[in-house]
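hey m, so remember when u said the tokens were messed up on ur end? i reran from scratch. heres the input so u can diff it against urs
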Amino acid sequence: MAKRPRQRGNVSLPVLESTDGAKRPRSKRGVWRAAVLIGVHIVFAIHITQWLIVGSTLSPVEPSESMQTLEFGAINTGFVFFVLAILSTFLFGRFLCGWGCHVVALQDLCGWMMKKLGTRPKPFRSRLLVWAPLAFGLYMFVWPTFKRTVLFPVMGAVGLERPVWLRDVPELRGFHAELIVTDFWATFPPWFVAIPFFLVIGFVAVYLLGAKGFCTYGCPYGGIFAPTDLASPAKIKVNDNCDASGHCTAVCTSNVRVHEEVRDFGMVVDPGCMKCLDCVSACPTDALSFGYAAPALIAKPRNKEAAARVAKKRKNPKRFDLSIREELALAVVFVLVFLGYRGFLNHVPMLMAAGIAGIGAFLAWKLWSLVAKPNVRLQRLQLKADGRVRVSGVVLGLIAVGVLAGAAWGGVVNSLRWSAHLEHERIRVPLAVVLRPEYAAAPRHAMHADRGTEAFERSRPLADGGVGWSLRP
């Protein structure tokens, strides 16, 4: 009788020391960039301190404040900063992301600490979820204006009634300046939300998704900066000194395969490049430099061999961690987790929900792998070997179930409140009519009111007989 071949687990191979005197690639720009990012946080502290002392200050220098400008015409510091940031990205590439973003500073700090502890986070590579930042960016900064200037006028011209689920946009009567504010913290979450938020987009996202995990799968600003970078002529270029050492890719914290890009295009065309210049600093032959060349949108491979490699790479499914079916399934999980956690407990903001969505999708993939695959790893941890789930796998599985269960709970509560909102929107009676003493609701309006009230009641806290949390007036 033929013997059944024994399944083998993953084996850690020893890493031999170099015998030719070569040193581990290291960037000298890291210290300078860290100093700049520390300076950015010092400026933040000065800004907040000035507000606490004086009682008024410049409005938050935060791109999300641009939503107030686009919806209500209030020109604030965040809008001015965002416009300048987009312009600078076109002129110099994503320098601002690499040298001026506090979230990038947090992720780099977390990645540096993990390396000191012996863990180098492996990037999670997805072909679909990478589009999430662009979707978030369009939703925040383009969708309101598109509805006001294109969608609603076209619907009115062809006689289509606006669906109740399609939220209205205030009429823009002009722009006005709101550069100075007295309530600086009005649009920021409280500390007990901010701290978990930074943990989520910092340590958790970096460990599970890679060095720039939140930038890759959750940042709406990156969703705007990345397409702008594609049109920018600012590039990391290569000269004839290149010896294909691979040091550039080894030090890149933006998950860019620098050595392949410069080999095939003569420059880095990946819009994920944040121009941190680590690759330039680490190159042992001074082959890389920052300069100007054709934008990535029109860049072509250097020769026929390079074109063949690029075409083969783009068709190779192994450069991604998931199959197409897994991608589609995780895309659905990503959306559901985002919708479940947005507004969770009346506090989770959109950006935090985006970060949790990326983490939740990754954990769902690992949970499925623990069930369906004989061997599963996470970074340096062996979660399952030869069909047996280890303690680390059990712990990760419980965490994944907890995160997904929280999303399911939030989804139920949010769906109840959304249905209540829709019932309210179906009652189209002018307020002046409702306030008349003799007003009596029509049966149809009373039905919608009762349904909406019932849905709100069901979404109240468990102590009040509901399934959710407290209502926010």
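this time it looks ok to me. The chain has 19 helices and nine strands. if urs says something different then somethings off w ur setup not the seq
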